[in-house]
User: What shape does this take?
Amino acid sequence: MDNTTDRNASADAAYDAGDRRHVERREKSAKTARLPRNADFRWLMGEPRGRRFIWDLLAKAGLFRSSLGLSPELTAFNEGRRDLGLSVLADLMRLCPEQYARMQAEAISKQPVSNGENDDRRDD
Assistant: This one.
């Protein structure tokens, strides 16, 4: 029995990056898998609750602050957390960039207004 015939007959044959058909098949499969996730993300960002959730996630990921920690291990941990936030931000900017400004404006409008009385900073 010829091994090449068996390999080509199987849908689960070993991937060969030099084979244009393998590359095209893999790209099509990846695109098909991304479509529902992309639609879900657009739906999430289309809702005020979804935008609040994503804003909170980005903040918790440390996207808006330094990841430098007291130890190299803590810095690495913070960078891992930040990498997840960057991935979410990249999806946001790729799929619905107009929603970022909207999400930011909504988050800023929900922040309490400071009159300076309870600030930790002093002008003494």
User: Anything to note?
Assistant: The two ends are 89 Å apart (CA to CA).
